[in-house]
Amino acid sequence: MRFTLDGRMVDRPCLWPVEGGIEHIDQRKLPGSTIIERSKTLKEQLEAIRTLSVRGAPALGVFAGLSFAFGLERGSDPNDLKLAILSARPTAVDPRNAVCEVEDAFLISGPKGAMSKALEIMERTISQCRQIGEHGARLVPDGGRVMTHCNAGALATVDWGTALAPIRMKARQGGDPFVWVSETRPLLQGSRLTAWELAQERIRHSLIVDSSSGHLMSQGLVDLVIVGADRVARNGDVVNKIGTYDKAVLARENNVPFYVALPLSTLDADTATGADIVLEERPAEEITDMNGMATAPEISPAFNPAFDMTPHRYITGYVTPRGVLDREGLLELFH
Ligand code: MRU
Predict the structure, then answer these.
(1) I need a surface site. Which of 34, 49, 141, 242 has the fewest CB within 10 A?
(2) Cα 75 to Cα 43: distance, rounded to the nearest angstrom
(3) How many structural domains is the chain composed of?
(4) CA-CA distance, 136 to 165, in Å (whole number)?
(5) What's the domain range around 125?
(6) Boundary-marking domain end, from 69, 100, 131
(7) 145 and 89, same structural domain?
(8) Which atom of ligand 1 is nearest to the CA of 162?
(9) Which of 97, 131, 165 is the last residue of a domain?
């Protein structure tokens, strides 16, 4: 990902390991400030996950794998570590997949093996996202108008992104894509993070409020929708940021193709259907307050599910490192 840091343009991932810990771009501070945070203790790493300083399913997977490996190096109990890391946020499956892989490596070759596996997962995530970009760029016509939701960019995946990878790749190929960025209430991952990534790379885009998606589609202003995923069940159902389901249904109604982009770490072979996935519920204050200012009467309660489930029947195709697949192709990846 290319961005300006301390007045210089750099090409860097959103997180990386350093001596004894992890550095990451603090996503809570964007787009105002680009601050690099360092977390060395498990407590700091869990705090980074819970507060969405690090977020997005594949980035959470890499961060979880590294946190687990650093904890094992410090001699912490593997079961305690695993429980703490995996309960920090429940919906994305990438952290579970990463921690299980690192644990297997630890059982065979100790803390050193665990750390090499965590680093391998990081490299693999970056290269799979690049492959998603290569396959997905072919879906985007020259000058094509893509709608996306939340942030499934480099910030959410370490580098390249999932939904943003085809757009980034198309832009680097000179295809001049345009992106409708859905602001993504209540935490504004679209306007704060996706727009920031696109602005940094000078990719054409416009912010929209979440509720304008149907209108834009009905006016013929959207060529395709691409979103990311937090977890894909064995039948192809997808859980992603709240509001994804609305876009999928509206896309079907308006004959707009609806794609989900994902690395293989987002597949959950243990879960039969999307209905079985636990959807994280976040504090009501994320809806009733903005930067300490009340946006609702003090006595009004609020319900804040952070994710929703899109049934596979609404999904035109899955953009994966193995290519753009229909449902049948996706289901083969589980074997
Ligand atoms: O609550 P968040 O910001 O972690 O939610 C993130 C999303 O819903 C992303 O779309 C998803 O993790 C895919 S990221 C490639």
Answers:
(1) 141
(2) 15
(3) 2
(4) 8
(5) 2-131
(6) 131
(7) no
(8) 15
(9) 131
Which ligand 1 atom sits nearest the alpha carbon of residue 307? 8
Q: What is the pLDDT along the chain (335 residues), one digit of tens a residue?
A: 999 999 999 999 999 999 989 999 999 999 999 999 999 999 999 999 999 999 999 999 999 999 999 999 999 999 999 999 999 999 999 999 999 999 999 999 999 999 999 999 999 999 999 999 999 999 999 999 999 999 999 999 999 999 999 999 999 999 999 999 999 999 999 999 999 999 999 999 999 999 999 999 999 999 999 999 999 999 999 999 999 999 999 999 999 999 999 999 999 999 999 999 999 999 999 999 998 899 999 999 999 999 999 999 999 999 999 999 999 999 999 98
Choosing from 24, 26, 151 the residue with most ligand 1 atoms within 8 A of its CB, the one to mutate for a pocket test is 151
Q: How many angstroms separate the CA atoms of 258 and 318, rounded? A: 9
Mutate to test the pocket of ligand 1, among 129, 230, 260 (most ligand atoms within 8 A of CB): 230
Query: Which residue among the candidates 26, 230, 237, 268 is catalytic per the annotation?
Result: 230
Around Cβ 39, how many Cβ atoms within 10 Å?
Answer: 24
One domain for residues 61 and 143: no
Determine whether 237 is an active site residue.
Answer: no
Among candidate residues 255, 225, 261, the one with its CA nearest the CA of residue 243: 225
Pocket (CB within 6 angstroms of ligand 1)? 52, 55-58, 92, 150, 152, 156-157, 162, 189, 228-230, 240-241, 306
Q: For residue 130, give the 3-state DSSP assignment.
A: helix
Residues 19 and 75 both lie in one domain: yes
